[in-house]
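Cross-check.
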Amino acid sequence: MKRMIITAAAALLLCSCAAASKEESSEGFLDIIEQAVEDAGNASPALTDYSALSTEKHGYGQGVQLDNENRPAGAVDFNNVFGKYGAKAIDSADTKTIRLTFDQGYENGYTAGILDTLAEKNVRATFFVLEDYAEKNPELVRRMIDEGHTVGNHSVTHRSMPDLSAGECREEVMGLHKYIRDRFGYEMKEFRPPMGEFSELSLAVTRDCGYETVLWSYAYADWDVNAQPDPGEALEKLTSALHNGAIYLLHSVSSTNASVLGDFIDCAREAGYEFV
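Predicted model, tokenized:
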């Protein structure tokens, strides 16, 4: 009976987006649908007419304009426009909360120290990993999971999602999903598109894969290992940007991030913020 339900769901979805799924074999697509149904508690997957959605590429950035609560206008606008696709750049403004997120493109020797600091401060963070990162650093990914952090999906190959067909977008998300599930027994639920680039189509595909797209409401130039900001300057930038519902994007390749993380956590807590 379960196979009949899954097959029917797959057939309906194939009818609604046949053009978008030409690249996939029916067997591989059925496997994705079966897992989606299983993850959703045997509910039928959402049916989306991808042909009606825009493929225009957007490059996200929180911008410099702030509202009267110190929240970046770009993040608030993103939620208002694209929240319907299960996507957000900022959390609720009702409480003084902060989410720390790290993009894991490659390992530069600082992640273990960052995990040490988070453990010392009793803070949980989200680490968005690429498949290559997970393959090369399984001990760090295992530590993230075992220490209660969220491991997020940053795609298989770090391609720009709006440049891809619906089928290719799905492969970037679900390919890594399957790898992490099979290798670590962990189910990821949050996706961060590479380079912060997206389209309506890519957001809808990500949602239909059972994921929430999570961007950020604050980031600074921390990723260039050859031009690391001064620690004092970086700490000032981080603390002056505090706002309710903040989602901070940091890169673990940054020596500055590793050195100021504990001080930032202390400063934020002194200002009344809770890390979630």
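The chain has ten helices and eleven strands. The longest strand covers residues 97-104. Passed to J.P. for a second look.
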